[in-house]
Amino acid sequence: MSASSAAQRGIIDPPIDELLTKVDSKYALVTYASRRARQINTYHQQLEQGMFEMVGPLVEHDAEDKALSIALREINEGLLRVTERREPAPMPMPTIPDFSSITVPEFDRAPEATFGDAEADFGADS
To answer: Where are the domains of the chain?
Structure first.
């Protein structure tokens, strides 16, 4: 395929109307396609380095095809499964009590014992 026909295919194939039936919104389409295109670009970079951590293109493609065009064709053919990452819900901030409103209840206190009273009690038991 020549460079001009590859570029034209990327513009008109797959049609946007078909792509929008595969995703929830235009925003989702752009997000999914751009993420997959980055993965494809990373795959090609790793391939040159002898690393194989990313999955390469899942559709037939020419060397002239852009990663975004490849990603859009993969989405159109239903070859990708999108799983949404959900961030854990933030932990609620603990409420800090307002210490200015705390009061100390009055206690009925027994009279304090004196040292002499304690000796008298010990002496009575023995």
So the answer is: 3-76
Check whether domain 3-76 has CATH 3.90.940, yes or no? yes
Q: Residue 42 burial (CB < 10 Å; 0-12/13-18/19+)?
A: middle
Contacts of 72 (CB under 8 A, 6+ apart): 10, 14, 19, 33
Summarize pLDDT for 2-17 with one digit per residue, the tens: 555 555 565 678 899 9
Phi-psi region of 78 (alpha: psi -120 to 50; beta: other; left: phi over 0): left
Examine the pLDDT at 33 and tell me if it is beyond 90. Answer: yes
Residue with tokens 């925003």: 27
Q: Which residues contact 62 (CB under 8 A, 6 or more apart)?
A: 1, 6
CA distance 48 to 62: 17
Please say whether the beta carbons of 54 and 46 come within 8 A.
Answer: yes
With tokens 């194989």, the residue in question is: 52
pTM above 0.85, yes or no: no
